[in-house]
Design brief:
It is a single chain. The chain has 185 residues and is mostly helical. The protein is built from eight helices and no strands. Helix 2 packs across helix 3 (47-64) and helix 7 crosses helix 8 (160-183). The longest helix has 24 residues, at 160-183. It starts with 9 loop residues before the first helix and ends with a helix. The mean pLDDT is 80.
Length: 185
């Protein structure tokens, strides 16, 4: 089979995989690896465990690919697998904790800017850790992953209005927590 280019749609790649082209799945892995790893970091808090998590998610996706019906996008379906894998692991271990992503231009920061950035990240991380897990997951998927409410609903199983409520309440609680921290400075 001729190789697929980077412009190939998820549907085209899935068709190739289902037709026996095992190598085509690697393109889906490359496309969504960062998203799955970020979710893995949130659930595992350890880079090695997050990589194991991502591998587990992609194996589950590969094995279950024939069951993908296309009612949602592949990315939503994959996020659902990752979310369920993480929730099942957290039931055994602890709680979801989203991690901040490093800014692209961090090397251009002055020492003062870097100190302010580090303090801001630490404050935000403390505030996020205090959120109920369901709020933190919805907020993370909405803002960092850029998922729409419907896609988050498909991934988590929460109704759309519940997702909206969780995001709203999470933002409200973060505002209160960060405002209270700022008062103490």
């Amino acid at each position: 089979m001729s190789p697929l280019g980077p412009e190939a749609t998820d549907t085209e790649i899935i068709e190739r995989v289902l037709d026996g082209d095992r190598d085509a799945f690697a393109q889906l892995v490359r496309r969504y690896q960062r998203r799955v790893l970020r979710l893995g970091y949130g659930f595992c808090k350890d880079s090695d465990a997050a990589e194991d998590f991502a591998q587990d998610v992609f194996v589950k996706a590969y094995v279950g690919l024939a069951g993908f019906k296309g009612r949602s996008s592949f990315s939503t379906w994959l996020t659902r697998i990752a979310y369920n894998t993480g929730i099942n692991a957290k039931r055994k271990a602890g709680r979801y904790e989203p991690l901040e992503s490093e800014p692209q231009d961090v090397k251009n920061f002055s020492p003062e800017e870097e100190h302010i950035r580090m303090e801001t990240v630490a404050s935000l991380k403390r505030a996020m850790a205090a959120l109920p897990e369901k709020y933190a997951v919805c907020l993370d998927l909405y803002f960092r992953e850029g998922m729409k409410y419907g896609d988050i609903s498909d991934a988590t199983g929460f109704p759309v209005n519940t997702i909206k409520s969780h995001v709203f309440r999470a933002k409200h609680e973060l505002r209160l927590a960060l405002g209270a921290e700022g008062d103490g400075l």
